[in-house]
Amino acid sequence: MFIICAYTLINFLDHKTIKNALVHALACAALIDIRIVGILVPFLTFLFTLIDIGVMRFTGVDFKKAFLSLCAYCFFLELFTVLFWPFLWPSPLNNFIYALKLMSHFQWDGTVLYLGHYVRSFHLPWHYIPVWIAVTTPLTYVVTFCIGYARTIVLAVWKPASFYQHKRGELLALLLFSMPLLAVILFKSVLYDAWRQMFFIYPFFLILSLIGFRAVFNFVREKSSGVLIQTALGILIVFNLSTVVFFMVRCHPYQNIYFNSLAGRDLKEIKSKFELDYWGLSLTKVLEHIMANDNGRVVPIYADGPFKIVPTELLAAGDMNRLMFVENILGAKYFISDYRWHWQDYQYKNDPYYSVKVDGVPIAVAYRL
Predict the structure, then answer these.
(1) C-alpha–C-alpha distance, residues 282 and 289, integer Å
(2) Which of 69, 291, 331, 343 places its Cα 20 to 30 Å from the Cα of 156?
(3) In whole angstroms, what is the distance from residue 169 CA to residue 175 CA?
(4) Contact, 350 vs 368, CB < 8 A?
């Protein structure tokens, strides 16, 4: 929805009509009702439209039409936002403010593994999201993003009027990436489980990456040995991306464990610094192995971790009926874990009964007690 809203925003800014105002308002309302952080898009809509209206007054363009389309957008946005969100019906303004405050200070007092330390969710450092983005994104993307991000800021500051007129889309990509990130940092919002709550800014990260790549490509093309450098650059990028593809194919279905070299030398070191399979998806494979090799009518299992989140819905119906989770490890036949809140190896006398590994590093384990 964030991508769709960005698209309808560009359409509305290019052609300020009642129809485009209606479509953009509909998309923005759906976005806000899914995640209230979506109010950033209406903010940019107001800001950019008011800038355009101000320019139109001096250029003689029909700013009255633009102003009416903005009014229509405001009306439809309010209408659709309330209509699609029953929570707002009793008291639209008060309940909206309540939801906004709740989003800014979500009450989850847990711990996350970050840079080798368990940190409480209320005390995460400002660089938590930037670091997670940097270590879980292919290095090619990270380098070209840094170039594209810096270039966009420099051009926007150097010639703001010209940049706004000719590169407004790039400016939008910069703001749609930066504003949610800055909002989380400034409001000290509670975050957990890597940067999954911020994945919606990733498309704009990629746009800025492409801007950086284009800048580098154009720069080397102008050099005397441009062809040679372009070829070397192409080989480097293909090699980097092919290693990512190879990892995804080789480690399927656990390609979500991807980290680049900034995170550490190997996955064993990375495991001691960052969360790996925090959703416990690999535990499904562990349970399938246990149920396939244990003929007991009831199989009691103790799952490690404060919340004991285990994805049992993917198991066969017959296995789910035999499966029984117990609260006390003394009553269990098996102990299972995805190493969340306990990245170290478990000190049992016997070897693991079964484990799921990525690059030779266990991300889920079972012990027969």
Answers:
(1) 11
(2) 69
(3) 10
(4) yes
